From TrEMBL:
Gene3D superfamilies: 3.40.50.1970, Dehydroquinate synthase-like - alpha domain. GO terms for molecular function: alcohol dehydrogenase (NAD+) activity; metal ion binding. The keyword Oxidoreductase applies. It is an enzyme of class 1 (oxidoreductase). Residues 22-191 form the Alcohol dehydrogenase iron-type/glycerol dehydrogenase GldA domain. It comes from Solidesulfovibrio carbinoliphilus subsp. oakridgensis. Its EC number is 1.1.1.1. PANTHER family: ALCOHOL DEHYDROGENASE, ALCOHOL DEHYDROGENASE 4. Belongs to the iron-containing alcohol dehydrogenase family. Pfam families: ADH_Fe_C, Fe-ADH. Keywords: NAD, Oxidoreductase. Its cofactor is Fe cation. This is Alcohol dehydrogenase. Signal peptide: none annotated.
Length: 399
């Protein structure tokens, strides 16, 4: 049997099931929120903590539709203090507002940062004696969370279909937690909410989805299911991102990018992630100004150079829409990297991290990446052994 299928361990048992949230997907899906809020109220969950950043919930057009729904069905308080790469303090401030309200449910409108903040607040609200650091750093078990409804305004996060949350400590640490209680109970995926994304965010969120797919397909935890989802996600990003860049209002392009992001999120929820995300989290922990997806895109070629020889069959297969003509041989890593770089340049993805770091920063980035709890979780899942030398080489090649 040729291709990556021949390398699948048919004796390893994996979970073949969709991820948890009931997800309403398609243009106009936001209208379903009215029934969701009515259902929460009927179930006695009529006090809702709304979590957003300061911009996306309005710029996306969601707010004009959502506010009348909230006023019709529930009592609510609005936390709009979400920041990119949210901190423990952000999450605890959201939870404090929810506690004042006596919140019985949480509604998040936004991308990954809003969802991470809302997930953490939902956990804190049922663990009143705990701090965010107890879960993120001390291993406290997540034994429950308030029901979370997610309205996604991005086509990159994946958090709306997954069981992970990420937050940043007061220092340089940016760990993650994972629990079935972190799945939203219901998710709205309405592509119309993404048409206001500026070009830079259109590209960077698509890079996030792309890297979710590539990592989930090459992790040691990958399965035929996660690889199949990843392959389709990459195909759709390659097919529709160029259109979304030049025609931001093209709803069909936004539809397929959001769908690609959702299935890439499902892929990594089951197949998990590894090098690119572990290293980018070190970058954004040390410099919060770097957009998550942009950082991933900067690192991607250097990561591919390292991992391609260990997973050439699957990478040649799923990268075909971006880097056609690969045969799936270990020795073609440089060809694969060159073709991916050409594609990244064509869509306007920055090629280096020079706008954020210099060579002087590489030792600190390497130390941060190697010592972080997230790296300790993810790096063992890579298809290669990742040590300090590999990490330093990736950062050097990304300058």
């Amino acid at each position: 049997m040729g291709g990556w299928e021949g390398k699948v361990d048919i004796h390893r048992i994996f979970v073949l099931q969709p991820t948890r949230p009931q997800t309403f997907f398609g243009v106009g899906a936001l209208a379903r929120l009215d029934g969701i809020l009515a259902g929460l109220a009927a179930a006695g969950r009529d006090k809702v903590l709304l979590v957003t950043d300061t911009v996306a919930y309005r710029a996306s057009g969601a707010w004009d539709t959502v506010r009348p729904m909230l006023e019709r069905h529930v009592a609510w308080e609005h936390f709009d203090g979400v920041r990119p790469n949210p901190t423990y303090a952000n999450c605890e401030a959201a939870a404090a507002l929810g506690r004042e309200l006596g919140a019985t449910a949480v509604l998040a409108i936004g991308g990954g940062s809003a969802l991470d903040t809302a997930k953490t607040a939902a956990v804190l609200l049922v663990h009143p004696r705990k701090k965010a650091s107890d879960f993120y750093e001390k291993g406290a078990p997540v034994t429950g969370a308030l029901p979370l409804v997610a309205v996604n305004t991005s086509h990159g996060t994946g958090s709306e279909v997954g069981a992970f949350a990420v937050a940043q400590s007061d220092g340089e640490e940016k760990p993650a937690i994972r629990s079935p209680h972190l799945y939203p109970v219901q998710t709205i995926e309405d592509p119309a909410l993404t048409v206001s994304l500026p070009v830079k965010l259109t590209v960077s969120t698509a890079m996030d989805a792309l890297c979710h797919a590539l990592e989930a397909a090459t992790a040691v935890t990958a399965s035929p299911y996660s690889i199949t989802l990843a392959r389709e996600a990459v195909r759709l990003v390659a097919a529709f991102l160029p259109t979304a860049i030049v025609q931001p209002g093209n709803l069909a392009a936004r539809y397929w990018l959001m769908y690609a992001s959702a299935i890439a999120g499902m892929s990594f929820d089951l197949g998990l992630l590894h090098v690119t995300h572990a290293l980018e989290h070190a970058m954004s922990a040390l410099n919060a100004d770097i957009p998550h997806g942009e950082g991933l895109g900067i690192l991607l070629p250097a990561v591919l150079r390292e991992i391609y020889p260990a997973a050439p069959e699957v990478l040649a297969d799923i990268l075909a829409p971006i880097a056609p003509g690969l045969a799936g041989r270990p020795g073609e890593a440089e060809t694969a990297v060159a073709r991916v770089r050409e594609w990244l340049a064509a869509i306007g993805q920055p090629a280096t991290m020079g706008a954020y770091f210099t060579g002087v920063d590489v030792p600190a980035l390497t130390r941060m990446a190697m010592k972080s709890s997230l790296a300790k979780m993810l790096l063992p899942l890579a298809p290669i052994r990742v040590d300090c030398g590999v990490v330093e080489r990736i950062f050097q090649h990304s300058l």
